[in-house]
Amino acid sequence: MLTAFGLELLERVEPMVGNLDEELLKLRNTSRNIVSKLNIGATNTYLKAIVLPACLQLLDEHSDLQINLKDAPAKQLIEDLNQGLIDMAILPEVYQTDKLRHQFLFKEQFCVIGTKLMLRHLPKNTRLRSLGEQPVALLDKNFLMRQKIEYQCKSEGIQLHTVLELSAMSDLLDVAKAGKIVVIGSGIACRGYPELIAKEVSGEHLSRDATLYWRTSAHQTELMKAVKERLVVASRPFSKIS
Asked: Domain span at residue 121?
């Protein structure tokens, strides 16, 4: 962990060092490919649905890249950004800090997820109270998504019949596939699970903003600019869904 002095020093010299690193890489490179290294973080759903496809496409076009991806909770990613351990991150919320810049990508509404048979009785305008006494699986209370669901329950004066708590969205989807328990989570995560459907749930607390972050002091390399462009493009289908 950097001290306060170390963090201030990093902010001052990082643009210069980043620019020097990029120029050295360019001198060694005889092709016209983008050359650089980049560390990108994202929460699990956004890493699989947005970051990984965008990076794979970029690697197909530029063979001299090195991209390191990290899957971590939003709080950890913010700490890693501030410490200079990662260069960019996609998070499900907007964090206000003068040390980080951000770009909004899209708004995501939470969904009830299950098999078609399990969700057949839900109305078109689904609310949490629509679930009645149906067994539900949720992310554990360390996740902001779970906290938002609880805020919504409190505002509606209801209590869900929560029978299972898990620490990964992928595990929730495995539960939904079994066809006995519905889950509440990210509809984006359902891509690749043809047996599952997702219905958006109405509620003022039941949404989150996918947001791209990078350090204010960081040197903007050609690779960072290219990745930003690809991430925006990869996010467009989800913006249309929401």
From this structure: 107-207
- How many Cβ atoms are within 10 Å of 71's Cβ, its own excluded? 17
Query: Residue 165 forms beta bridges with which residues?
Result: 138
Section 190-196 average pLDDT: 90
Cβ burial 180-202 (10 Å sphere, 16+ → b, else e): ebbbbbbbbbbeeeeebbbbbbe
Q: What is the C-alpha to C-alpha distance for residues 126 and 142, in angstroms, rounded to an integer?
A: 25
Distance of alpha carbon 137 from alpha carbon 183, whole angstroms? 5
Banded pLDDT at 25 (limits 50, 70, 90): low
> Is 224 found in the same domain as 191?
no
Domains contained in the chain, number: 2
Q: SS3 letters for the chain?
A: CCCHHHHHHHHHHHHHHHHHHHHHHHHHCCCCCCCEEEEEEECHHHHHHHHHHHHHHHHHHCCCEEEEEEECCHHHHHHHHHHCCCCEEEECCCCCCCCEEEEEEEEEEEEEEECCCCCCCCCCCCCHHHHCCCEEEEECCCCHHHHHHHHHHHHHCCCCEEEEEECCHHHHHHHHHCCCCEEEEEHHHHCCCCCCEEEECCCCCCEEEEEEEEECCCCCCHHHHHHHHHHHHHHHHHHHHC
- Please state the pTM of the whole predicted model: 0.80
Q: What percent of the chain has pLDDT over 90?
A: 63
The answer to whether residues 153 and 200 belong to one domain is yes
Report the interhelical angle of 222-241 vs 52-61 (nearest 10°).
Answer: 140
